[in-house]
Structure prediction request, 193 residues.
Amino acid sequence: MFVDIADEDDPYVAGMEGISKLSDDLGIDPLEDIRILVLLWKLGADEKPAQISKEEWKKGCIKLQVDSIKKFQALLPALDTGFLDRTEFRDFYKFCFQFNRQGTHRTLDKDLVSALAPMVLKDRVSSDRLTTFADFLGVTKDESYSRITLDQWMSFLDFCYEVEDIADFDESTSAWPVLIDEYVEYLEKLEKK
Prediction:
């Protein structure tokens, strides 16, 4: 099966083109269906961003006990993130950041974060929080937020879990990254309008 998705110039790696082909074979949209990322995470695709190696694939298929597209398709319902507890989900959320990096970059472009966060956090975080965070990233003029770090990415998840009501947020005792402080200021301005 790996041969079908492997890169033409490197038979030991399947990049985004191969992952898209796998998604097509499974009947899912890789740009909208989170299950392809869950599958890659469960297969153990963590050697390099945006790809899975032949070795990772083999180990993952053995672990998941899949050796055909039919078995992968049968596995799809179990790839819903709703089945993950908070600790597992946190690991998966971190994987999503790492997998979507480009080359040696240690950050994600804010536009990618704005698209990826709602897909990954759907049904885990209020849709309002996801929308306002994407809006905040879209309107901020602060160049330091044009690329989001792993710490900022993880802090957003923790913030969503820990601060359900913005009224409970106290910046003076906050240990959140400045990005979160400024996001809260943005929310407070919205509430005043």
Summary: The chain has a mean pLDDT of 94. The longest strand covers residues 107-109. The domain at 2-79 is CATH 1.10.238.10 (Recoverin; domain 1). The chain is about 55% helix and 5% strand.
